[in-house]
Amino acid sequence: MKNLLLSPFKQGLFPLTVLIISLIIGCSAGKSKILISCRESNDLYRVLKQNNIPLRRFDTPQEAVRKSGKGAGILILADDYPAGTTSLDSLILEEAGRKKLRLYIEYPSWLPGIVTGQPKETALERVVVVTDRIQGLEPLQILYIHGCFYTPSDADDHLLSVSKVAGFDRAVYGAGEDAQAILFNHPSGNLLVSTTKLSQFITARYAPKESMQALWGHILTWVAGGSEQFGKLEWESAVRATYGPDEELPANAARIAVQRGIDWHTNAKMLLNEGGWQEYKELWKLDDNNINTTVPSVNNAAPMPVSDAGDGTYGVLEGIASEVRLDGSQPARWWLRSDSNGESSLAFALRSAMDGDQKSRLISGNLLDWLYFKSGLFQNDPSKPNYGLLFWAPGNAQALYQDNDIKAILGCMGTAAILETDKWDEVLVKNILGNFRTTGINGFRGRRIENPDLMKKGWLSYMKRDFTLYQPHYEAWTWSSYLWLYDKTGWKPLLEKTRKGISMMMDAYPDGWRWTNGIQQERGRMLLPLAWLIRVDDRPEYRMWIKQLADDIEKCQDRSGAIREELGDPSKGDYVPPRSNEAYGTNEAPLIQENGDKVADLLYTCNFTFLGLHEAYAATGDIQFKRMADNLADFLVRVQVKSTKHVSLDRGWMRAFDYGRWDYLGSNADSGWGAWSIEVGWTQAWVPTVLAMRELNKNLWDITEKSKVASRFETIRKQMIPDDVIVNLN
Length: 730
Prior knowledge:
730 residues, Rossmann fold, Glycosyltransferase, 2 domains, disordered N terminus
């Protein structure tokens, strides 16, 4: 298939080109040993040796060409990538032509008859297959060549190109008009050129693995002149799942997964010490009051902390960004999010309850102390409308998310129960009521409240709003806290408003629902409030609703336990798949491009659904919820990251997992939380939290059953929501 994406082959060839093209023709028949010019550390060289492929290595291209026999095939790899291109000269190519050699060359500094430019680094661009001549690869298939630098050229007849394209594993809108060659056949016929370093596929974690195997099978077969058909090379990926899909799990696999998942925070230096807190302040230009003094010249991804890990006294960072660099590493996400700190406290507390680890017990309490007493994020001034609410992070006092607060609230109620203390009871009640008094008359609060607006309008204006938002991602879990507080206090407005909101939400299902990154996550988020509603007000319709949601989720649960992502009506989606190549990477987005893509989302769906299923089984005893939770647990244990090379990734759970390929893969279109991100709190807390509760044979409702928040409730409630307000609203 001739590629028409780049400009045709230009005129004005070097005088030497005609000679070279006439010389480099044909290839001797018969089986020959592969010759390779590279350092011994090169990924391809090491893999070829491990796969017992006959080869000879040379230190320089000149030596390889000089010592080769007639008709040999030579791989000239990019030793100095990306800082230096691969040096070639006319003498090398003249000798190659006389010997009728077949040359594969990476990242060349110069080519006869081809105009090349200075190397460029990709940003959102991805590599696309633009030929049907590579067995095992299909036209428009997407390859993830991380940290890619390439030399632009005016080459024609290329096999792979690079451009900004939309899609999960296929460029659904075609390769971009500005596509540049990554792999192409030189007009001479015996020269295959890669404008980047394809041979560092292990180090830079190129994906999918099966596609890399097919690509190298093609290149090696070409270099050998077709005299040999190279099968599938095997290697161990630098970052991989802990267990295979059919591998027998150890009896204590879940327990080990919890311990590894919690230890990840320390190994990855997510827990800040005093030095790490200073790094944070310098990065975000914060003064002593945690206010931005200037606009910081950095996004939320930055190098990993330099300081050693702390003990929770200065909080925990958000996690790992999705950018995979050319050495396979990933930067940190430098936010001290309030929700992540609250969620993480519970995960650490449960690990300590599971195995007695005292360090985890200490960290769990320190995280809550930092969040509510030291960080300045909790608003504790009774005279202000934002009383009882949490800011998002130091340096961000704009947005007030209920979906942010509820995760901290759940973490707080669970941690307090496990540590058997009432030290956070006051702030816990204030945090719940701060959200309740800004929730409208129908039980809906909305995506977020802007702090300046709240300070201007006052909390009562929000409590009086006649408002709905049929989007569980934002609304559902907050209802859970109202039901929990009602159970402890008996204050009926908590139940009445929540029951109204849940009933309206379920009456709108499914056609009236909005969805955030996918409809599947919305279903999963509704399980927890329905389970806890059954706890306090058991009715047949509630059991029917939660059964309906579980049935729809289970239709998408793979035999591996993974829950396949699913998109809803595009007109009702906040973050739909990119609708053009240009839109890729410009907004939040799903991991899939279309329904049927075999991708599970551990940031928005599997993690929260796991808790919902666990609590639903505890509330109802319905074996369906247990079956689904058991299968999901098996999947989550298996796909925990294993990496001896990347300490900051080992033991984590990344957002995307392609359960068809059994690899970390998904569309990386999301501008903030892409396929390879690891999120403290949302993912890295809730997965170990539920696994630990399963090990302890406990659930969050029962763990917190003996909470004594009722002793503080009435005083705080009258201060925050006076009796006359309730009378007037009714």
